[in-house]
Design a protein that fits this description.
Blueprint (H helix, E strand, L loop, with lengths): L1 H35 L3 E6 L4 E4 L1 H7 L3 H4 L4 H4 L1 E4 L9 H8 L3 E2 L4 E4 L5 E12 L5 E10 L1 H23 L3 E6 L4 E4 L1 H7 L15 E4 L11 H8 L8 E4 L5 E6 L2 E4 L5 E10 L1 H23 L3 E5 L5 E4 L1 H7 L3 H6 L4 H4 L8 H8 L4 E8 L5 E10 L5 E7 L1 H23 L3 E6 L4 E4 L2 H6 L9 H7 L3 H17 L3 E9 L5 E12 L5 E10 L1 H49 L5 H28 L9 H15 L3 E6 L9 H22 L3 E8 L3 E8 L13 H12 L3 E6 L5 E8 L19
Parallel strand pairs: 25-26
Antiparallel strand pairs: 1-2, 1-7, 3-5, 4-6, 5-6, 6-7, 8-9, 8-14, 10-11, 11-12, 12-14, 13-14, 15-16, 15-19, 17-18, 18-19, 20-21, 20-24, 22-23, 23-24, 26-27, 27-29, 28-29
Length: 759
């Protein structure tokens, strides 16, 4: 029994020894582990006092384990919030109270014993006894200062990258490795015309994509998609994007994949260069080059580019047309300037230097054609930046021939102008200047300096009374496109006299039908006009003489015969030898003879209004209107001044009488008037006659073959006078006649302008 008990005690003792050894071994392992881990570890009691601190905790806090035993945790473990700087509540208190693991933020600052600050990550956990009661707490913390610094730098770098991308003028965006958009700047949004959704839109933020040839480009085959799928940059592939508003932009993308430190693909960045303006300029330049190439090829001038030694670099079709060589012959035979030039290439030294100085020079040379004929070329040459010469050659062979013809024509014209007494003139209408031949000075007495501005000088010397008529003739011709015209006017001479001019002209019009030039000849017809006037006076005098003789014959002879007949009829009636019915016949004959005598007397007065010593102009005009007043056809208001014969000679008075007579006949026949006013008065230089009526009027421009008015005009011109006619339909008519008492020199004011082409 004792033996059994001893064995039992010995067995238990052996087991206890084994358990103790095991525990001792575990304690040693735990001590080694706690001392070896890199994290700081602090254990506390339930009261928050430190029980143990491992070497890493000593290093991190700056306190030794032996110095901190039984000290409160917060006196050693001094932690604050990195952002706010505020102390963090005692973590042990929270662990004991809540009985769970407590983790604090990773932005916790630990202040070491020496004042140094570390960024740490930490957490705490309660310690339980075998019965599950909390008997303390354990704190584990680690220095993440460097890790935090690296993380902050990464954040800064990422922020800087975002800012850089956002502020870049070009469109930039990034995608993750699956192609979903992550970052994009405003320039990209503006380019796309829409704002994509990060993490949702894939490959590109564009609405639609196209290849450069305009065919559709799927997003999953875009350059960005290829860069991610094949993990390589895609450069130089031009694409088109279409915005939601329909606008097309030319884009040059440059996606490049991004890799992490392990070489794994993480995404891609893409920069989109908008080359639309460049592309449009290229297209415009291309079109412009094509246009100018076409212009050069279609130009009638020969265009050549050649070197100083005469080697032809480029030429247009006109070179072939002018010389007769084909393009193939130029290339195959390697023709040079010397091959097509008559003589050598040398030019005037001064012009050669001007060419080298960058100036454009002009010279004339002869060129040989394929058929051995020669042509004259006007050449304009300039030096290009590459040292070659650009030359424009114009065939002036025909022009030279024409110049010779013009030279001969000018010589003939000069001979002709010397042979004629007419003044030849050439009016440049657009510039309003007139050139005259030398006869202009002979015709009017002016010197050449006085005719410096030919057009202005000509206009200023036309007689004022003829100026409007000349303007009307020119205006009518210009409007109707008439090419040949002639007109008459009086022109002022240096001796203050006026010459009668007959002007014949030819008008040249441009393609728009506007007159640009007139060429004409001025002929002095003063003598002819004076001769016509003298002839008219002679004819009028003869007519008046014939009328006077006829009037006297009617008055003196026919009236006497009729009077004698009346006497015999009266004697026959009184004799009583005539039967009753015969007496009635004789009485009727007597009345007819009386009426004939009265008509003959009136006719006699009209044919012979008065004798120089018998009646005045006023009296004979009264005698003229008396028969009309008796008929009550219209009322006549007569206002005639008494005119003496020594003031106005009898010939002029007779003509004034005939003018009144002619106009009254016109009024009786055509006017249908109720009132007529005749006024005749004298001024210092003129005798004026006005005859007006309130009849139906007419358009003076519509009158044709008006013999009465033509007679009135002719009678006025016989005495160097003029007439004015004012009338319009429904407004009656007024005839104004002005005759000079004696010839007076006329000095006129300057007349500005004649014909305005813009009119």
């Amino acid at each position: 029994m004792y033996h059994t008990a001893f064995l039992f005690i010995a067995e238990r003792d052996q087991k206890a020894t084994h358990i103790g050894d095991t525990l001792q071994l575990q304690k040693e392992h735990l001590g080694v582990t706690l001392k070896s881990i890199s994290e700081g570890l602090i254990t506390t009691g339930k009261d928050g006092k430190i029980i143990y601190m491992n070497p890493s905790a000593e290093k991190l806090t700056g306190w030794k384990n032996r110095d901190v035993k039984n000290k409160l945790l917060q006196s050693v473990y001094n932690v604050k919030n990195e952002e706010t700087g505020k102390l963090i509540d005692n973590i042990v208190t929270r662990i004991i109270q809540e009985g769970r693991v407590i983790e604090t933020e990773n932005n916790t600052i630990l202040q070491k014993r020496n004042g140094e600050k570390l960024v740490i990550s930490n957490n705490g956990s309660p310690i339980f006894d075998l019965q599950g009661n909390i008997i303390g707490a354990v704190m584990v913390f680690n220095d993440i200062t460097e890790k935090k610094r690296i993380a902050d730098e990464l954040k800064d770098n990422e922020r800087q990258l975002r800012d850089m991308i956002e502020n870049m003028p070009e469109a930039v965006y990034t995608c993750d490795r699956l192609g979903y958009l992550k970052i994009f700047n405003k320039a990209a949004v503006n380019l796309w015309g829409r704002e994509p959704v990060a993490g949702q839109d894939r490959w590109c933020g564009s609405w639609k994509l196209f290849h450069s040839d305009g065919t559709s480009l799927p997003h999953d085959n875009s350059p960005m998609a290829i860069a991610l799928k094949e993990a390589r940059p895609v450069l130089g592939k031009e694409i088109l994007i279409q915005r939601p508003d329909g606008k097309i932009r030319h884009i040059l993308p440059s996606p490049a994949p991004m890799f992490n430190a392990s070489g794994e693909l993480t995404g891609s960045v893409n920069m989109l260069l908008d080359i639309t303006d460049k592309k449009e300029r290229e297209i415009l330049i291309q079109k412009t080059e094509e246009k100018y190439r076409n212009l050069i090829e279609q130009a009638s001038d020969a265009i050549l580019i050649f070197s100083l030694d005469g080697t032809i670099k480029e030429f247009n079709n006109s070179v072939c047309s002018i010389t007769g060589y084909s393009m193939e012959e130029f290339f195959d035979r390697e023709l040079t300037i010397s091959d097509i030039l008559v003589g050598d290439m040398s030019i005037n030294p001064g012009k050669h230097q001007a060419l080298l100085n960058g100036e454009t020079i002009t010279f004339y040379r002869q060129f040989k054609c394929r058929d051995n004929s020669e042509i004259d070329l006007e050449v304009k040459a300039s030096l290009l930046e590459d040292g070659n010469i650009l030359a424009f050659g114009r065939d002036v062979t025909e022009r030279k021939r024409n110049e010779e013809k013009i030279k001969i024509a000018i010589e003939r014209f000069e001979i002709l102008s010397r042979a004629t007494s007419d003044t030849i003139w050439d009016w440049d209408i657009l510039n309003d200047s007139i050139l005259y031949n030398h006869n202009i000075t002979k015709m009017f007495g002016y010197t050449q300096p006085e005719i410096e501005n030919g057009a202005k000088w000509w206009k200023n010397n036309i007689h004022p009374d003829d100026y409007n008529n000349v303007c009307d003739v020119l205006d009518d011709a210009f409007r109707s496109g008439t090419q040949t015209i002639q007109f008459e006017y009086r022109y002022h001479c240096t001796d203050h006299a006026y010459k009668n001019i007959l002007d014949r002209a030819y008008i040249v019009y441009n393609a728009d039908g506007l007159p640009v030039r007139m060429i004409g000849a001025m002929q002095d017809v003063t003598k002819e006009k004076e001769h016509e006037r003298q002839v008219a006076i002679a004819i009028t005098d003869a007519q008046e003489k014939e009328r006077r003789e006829l009037g006297m014959e009617l008055h003196d002879n026919v009236n006497q015969l009729l009077g004698a007949t009346l006497l015999y009829l009266g004697m026959a009636i009184k004799s009583g030898n005539v039967k009753q019915d015969e007496t009635e016949i004789l009485n009727s004959c007597s009345e007819y003879i009386h009426e004939a005598i009265r008509d003959l007397r009136n006719l006699s007065h009209r044919l012979t209004p008065y004798a120089k010593e018998e009646a005045s102009l006023k009296e004979v005009i009264k005698m003229l209107v008396e028969p009309l007043q008796k008929t009550n056809q219209f009322k006549i208001d007569l206002q005639v001044e008494e005119i003496k014969n020594n003031t106005v000679d009898s010939d002029m008075q007779i003509n004034l009488y005939r003018i009144v007579q002619e106009q009254l006949n016109n009024i009786v026949k055509h006017a249908g008037a109720e009132k007529v006013k005749i006024k005749l008065w004298l001024t210092q230089k003129l005798i004026k006659l006005s005859i007006s009526d309130n009849g139906k009027g007419f358009d003076p421009d519509s009158l044709k073959d008006g013999i009465g008015l033509e007679n009135i005009k002719r009678r006025a011109e016989m005495f160097s006078g003029k007439i004015k006619l004012r009338s319009s339909p429904g407004n009656g008519c007024e005839l104004l006649v002005e005759l000079p008492l004696k010839k007076q020199p006329v000095h006129q004011p300057e007349i500005q302008g004649m014909y305005n082409l813009s009119r």
